């Protein structure tokens, strides 16, 4: 049975699919436009507007677009063919901005097989990049798993694959030169083209490697490649009993290691994936099943099952489905085929260009939406939140054990992550890029149900996912992926980057009037305002942390409760047995401020009071700028001084 399933699913690679829609739509020609992302929804569900979209086809055209907009003091943002980022990175503020599309900046500029370099325009997709490199028998060593991303977009958000080896798994760390088109002064003709590299201008180069699009438009990028090699891949499913320890060491043992964790099933799928010589026999192909075209009708059925599970709180069905999905995907090796069309067993050995990334649903044969990418907003398919953060390797064991502790409290709670294939976990390393990763870390990718039309109804086990999200971001100082996540993951994010000031100085130099900056980029860069949006039900969409009942869904039984996270974030300040530090840590105060002491006090039980020094907790609240009113109640403790 499994054999035939594999045959069927390897063949499906050749099926056609309606390509994704253009994210930019205009009322007349290229003017009066709207822009969204590939899912059709930003975290706050708004649609962004722009006065017009420009489609430069050469660097010279790009230069004149930026010059004209600078001269007119118009806001600008680069937009890509698919616009994959979840947050509002692509939006210009208001209606008067200009979108500069890189859709037609998609050519190879130069190849140099001797030097093993490849120079491309920034709208080139990862798929093209991989193919062009392979024509010279060269390979990009590490990359995201989805090949629809563009070079400019990957550099915009620090996209990565999985590895602790070499310079790590982030694409921008294999870049040797960047050509950047930014606003210029009157004497420069309102535009400036800079050529950036490690040797010529390291500060500017390290800022441009992960730029969030605020430095200007990247025109061209040169990659340093490696001689083509093959990989040998085996997936193994094991119990997660020793996962905390394994997660710390596995990445040193295998070059392309990653994990799919199924916490409610108590299982982990280990990806044992290593480089082997090019003459090793094998013609494997990784065509990841969830990235293949899917029948829209089938997706609609699955979606309606999901919706009914949510409506009837049918967690049992969710868990059963999660198990079925994970064992099905494991049985077909996630879409890996030994010879391009058949999975016959492990190891699967294939060239790097055939094994590293995939995305068959992008293939453009219009079929009237009979098939599509599963998340295509034009069909009734997948719609989800994605929370993605890198936890420093030094905290990974503790973090995993904390998640396991949550599963112990409610064993079925994390089934909500398993019907989206489980938690994908990938290795990243520290990068010289100012807004790149700060240290060796494990990146956790959590995908979970989002309601299409009812954002004010709580999801199944919403509080458990929020607990994990807040624990990672605030307690373990995890870095959110710039191109994924809901707003709260970016709360205070810039303080986590030691080179943030160096980045901001380059930004000031490249774009002193902030024409490429927006409300969102100012918020995440800590320049103006805050990423959180406080309104009724805001916590349900990750726009705020629930610090009052109205932020949750009080009429639907979801109250202000996640204050327990604060206690996990402040152990050294409130533990009865430990000497309290003179001032609470920044992480502890961030939690106190965002969650609110009212919530904290509401969740404290007698059991907790046995280990918490309540006077210390009162002191922490005051030191963090959220003092408790004298005479008020915190758990069973009465705050002194009334
Ligand atoms: C199915 C899917 C799979 C994914 N898999 C991975 C993965 O394996 N690993 C990973 O790390 N991420 C992954 N992502 C997320 C992805 O890395 C980011 O969202 C990525 O930035 C999107 O690339 P894009 O080309 O669509 O860029 P966009 O989302 O369109 O743009 C991202 C940012 O870059 C800026 N930008 C784009 N081009 C330029 C340019 N030429 N000059 C200056 N600024 C520019 C934009 O203004 C914007 O700020 C995935 C996303 C999806 C939808």
UniProtKB/TrEMBL annotation:
InterPro entries: ALO_C (IPR007173), Bifun_inhib/LTP/seed_sf (IPR036312), Bifunc_inhib/LTP/seed_store (IPR016140), FAD-bd_PCMH (IPR016166), FAD-bd_PCMH-like_sf (IPR036318), FAD-bd_PCMH_sub1 (IPR016167), FAD-bd_PCMH_sub2 (IPR016169), FAD-linked_Oxidoreductases_BP (IPR050432)
Pfam families reported for this sequence: ALO, FAD_binding_4, GULLO2-like_3rd
Cofactor: FAD
Domain of life: Eukaryota
Enzyme class: oxidoreductase
Cross-referenced Gene3D superfamilies: 3.30.465.10, 3.30.70.2520, Plant lipid-transfer and hydrophobic proteins (1.10.110.10), Uridine Diphospho-n-acetylenolpyruvylglucosamine Reductase, domain 2 (3.30.43.10)
PROSITE patterns the record matches: FAD_PCMH
Pathway annotation from the record: Cofactor biosynthesis; L-ascorbate biosynthesis
Signal peptide per UniProt: 1-17
Catalytic reaction list: L-gulono-1,4-lactone + O2 = L-ascorbate + H2O2 + H(+)
Residues in FAD-binding PCMH-type domain copies: 46-228
Family: Belongs to the oxygen-dependent FAD-linked oxidoreductase family.
Name listed for the protein in its UniProt record: L-gulonolactone oxidase
Provenance organism: Eruca vesicaria subsp. sativa
